[in-house]
Amino acid sequence: MIAPRTELSVTPVLLDQSARPTARSRPSRLSPVRRLAWIAVTCIAGGAAVKYSAPISVNPPLALEPASAPWARAPQSVGEFGKPRFERGWVSPEAQLAHVHCSMVSALPSGDLLALWYGGSREGAADVAVFTSRMTAGTKTWGPPVKVLDRSSVEGELGRRIKKIGNTVIFPDRTGRLWMVYASVSLGGWSGCALNIKSSPDAGLTWGPSRRLTLNAFFNMSTLVRNKPIYAADGRIGLPVYHEMATKFPQILWFQPGPDGTVEDYKVRNLGASKGLIQPVLVALGGDQVLMMLRDTSSQRALRTSLSTDNGWTWPDPTPISLPNPDAPVDALRLADGRILLAYNHASSGRESLGLSLSSDEGRTWKKHSVMERETEKEFSYPQLTQGPGGMIHLTYTWKRERIGHIAFNLAWLDQYRELAGGLLPP
């Protein structure tokens, strides 16, 4: 059985009346001429991305921070936290919106957790907005959702027409400033995305203006984002991104935060030559090694990995491992004891089961652990993991596209109490 979920006291914050769906949000059918023109643009842009985003002039990082975040306090031992702990709850309130998806969770230097997701009438609709919710350090309750982005506000900040907004990530830098990178579309579908960046000096209470990043030499289209970054010892941040137009492949966006929320320099670099692989996850292992895990959109439906031995600068072609992947995103986290925890859909098709697996040898082999959610013909997907300063591991995920679920557990539970979740994963 799946362990019961504890309801949390959250108050919904509804979208403005002006953000409700309009005729503008309904998809329109392209004429044959426009369809051919769009296909031509897609092919040219894909080739331009391959050609122009790979060679860059900046130097590779000499070292990475040992933890996923520079300020993280590593727990001393499993015993530091006593008995096993496992808790379920909700980040987003019930019936907040018709469609809720694509969460992100970040442990802040203050000890707070900040979660983020988008929601609206449907994915890709003009009324989609991005929300945050905060769990204050020392509490177990998520605060009410706060709308931080919508199509109208992005148009005002960027000074350009925006059709829709989508995937968004948040992460702190070494000074504690919080950064947000989000996808916006002015033309076409998700393959026409551009990335934008903004920052917060007060841990997400207020946000500065958005800046559009120029990452592609042709129309600056088709760069998307999904997962958390790695941190170079020289202050640079390596954010995993990916390209979708014409051909799909992973990339990394290296950028140098400047004073007062500025970006001093940024470059995007391709990660390996394999195509059909997107939404890279990067795990810093120490000793100049970084593990990359990838969503597989090909017919093989197997999770792919690659290991960089120069701090994420160059990569061999990714290879399939023993775990399946149903063309769905994953997330991984290096725990305080050195193991890697993976959250993913353990299936070659469908997203009906969300589970955990563990690696004790830096991703070479994996031991299936437990089921977090499972229900026939339902979706549990887009997991995100973080480990807070107190050692608790937090998992957020899309729950049936209706809510954002939250599960928290400690290392003692991970080692001893798999039956509190949903049983073992199938072979």
What descriptors fit this protein?
427 residues; 8% helix; Neuraminidase; mainly beta; four-stranded antiparallel sheet; 3 helices; single chain; five-stranded antiparallel sheet
Written overview of the protein:
The protein is mostly beta strands and 427 residues long. It has a single domain (17-420), classed as 6 Propeller (Neuraminidase), CATH 2.120.10. It has helices at 32-52, 151-158, 411-416; strands spanning 86-90, 99-107, 113-120, 129-135, 146-150, 164-172, 178-185, 193-200, 211-212, 223-225, 230-231, 237-243, 249-257, 263-270, 277-286, 289-296, 302-308, 319-324, 331-334, 340-345, 353-359, 367-374, 380-387, 393-399, 403-409. The strands form 6 sheets. Strands 10, 11, 12, 13 and 14 form a 5-stranded antiparallel beta sheet that branches. The model is unreliable at 6-30, 42-57 and 70-80 (pLDDT under 50).
Helix vs. strand class = mainly beta
Number of helices, where a helix is a run of at least 4 consecutive DSSP H or I residues: 3
Per the principal axes of the C-alpha atoms, what is the gross shape? globular
Q: Please tell me the CATH architecture by its name.
A: 6 Propeller
> What pattern of helices and strands is seen along the backbone?
HEEEEEHEEEEEEEEEEEEEEEEEEEEH
Give Rg in angstroms.
20 Å
pLDDT under 50 segments (min length 5)?
6-30, 42-57, 70-80
Rounded to the nearest angstrom, the distance between the terminal CA atoms is 18 Å
Helix content: under 10%
Q: What portion of residues belong to β-strands?
A: 35-45%
Give the number of DSSP strands: 25
Instruction: Assign the CATH topology.
Output: Neuraminidase
* Average predicted local confidence, pLDDT: 84
How many distinct folded domains?
A: 1
